[in-house]
Amino acid sequence: xxxxxxxxxxxxxxxxxxxxxxxxxxxxxxxxxxxxxxxxxxxxxxxxxxxxxxxxxxxxxxxxxxxxxxxxxxxxxxxxxxxxxxxxxxxxxxxxxxxxxxxxxxxxxxxxxxxxxxxxxxxxxxxxxxxxxxxxxxxxxxxxxxxxxxxxxxxxxxxxxxxxxxxxxxxxxxxxxxxxxxxxxxxxxxxxxxxxxxxxxxxxxxxxxxxxxxxxxxxxxxxxxxxxxxxxxxxxxxxxxxxx
Length: 244
Ligand SMILES: Nc1ncnc2c1ncn2[C@@H]1O[C@H](COP(=O)(O)OP(=O)(O)OP(=O)(O)O)[C@@H](O)[C@H]1O
Ligand SMILES: [Mg+2]
Fold this sequence. Notes:
Bound molecules: adenosine-5'-triphosphate, magnesium ion
Strand order of the largest sheet: 6-7-8-3-9-10
Shape: globular
Strand content: 25-35%
Oligomer: single chain
Number of helices: 8
Largest sheet: 6 strands, mixed
């Protein structure tokens, strides 16, 4: 299998707090890998390190055999890593289509005309084409989540980092979004690294799951293996969510 992402001994501190502690793992091309862990376990910080928002204190991030740790965010985006945010941050006054066109112009270096048609394709893919002309502030929670995904896809990523794409969605929307994530990989060949709060939402879609607790990787493996690991169950004690 071809290596897509390799994280080696990655550490990030905020003052006295070590948010990500000596984390290592690999993701292969066209895998869908879940990242779970209790609140504050370092999941988003790990994405911020991979996407170049933060520089690691130590360790390395390799993307398709090139070291990217320390590179600026826009370079990493152009190399083929896109992300969505836990709390969607569209340009509220701009239309849905314009928001996605920015992704195409910024990440994929497309001409204006090409970026428009490409953005429309991405909107169609996530089911938002009918809303293309409305300002982004008119969208509800689930539509904003879909806009995030469309905007990330418009940059033509090879690796897509999804930060809790299902939060705030109702059960029907969750089912649709799970299917959509599968299709991002199946139809476009994009490798997906997916932070999820509710472990069972990953079941049947991901090939592997990585678990963080207090910044450390405590488990890695198939959904079945990880969800029955006593270390993982222990980390979740006191958390409201269901594991399996
Ligand atoms: N910029 C920052 N400055 C200081 N502390 C931070 C910063 N960003 C994150 N932290 C802290 O680092 C730890 C990990 O945070 P992070 O957001 O990565 O967790 P998470 O696993 O994504 O949590 P959640 O499930 O709530 O989204 C937390 O204790 C958080 O308060
Ligand atoms: Mg987070």
